[in-house]
Amino acid sequence: MSPQNPLKPVAGMAPLAERLDRAAAVAAADRRIRVSDIETRLGTSFTADTVKALRRRFPRTHFVWLMGGDNLAQFPYWQRWQQIFRTLPIAVFARPATSQKALAGRAAYRFATARVPQRSARRLTLLPPPAWVFFHTRLDPRSATRIRAARISSTQKENRPQVSPELATVTTLPPRPPRTAEPAQLLRQVISSLEDGKAEDIVTIDLAGKTTFADYMVVASGRSARQVVSLTEHLEKDLPGRLAVEGKSQGDWVLIDAGDIIVHIFRPEIRAYYNLEKMWGAGLPEAELAVQ
Question: How far apart are CA 246 and CA 82, in angstroms?
Answer without folding.
Answer: 28
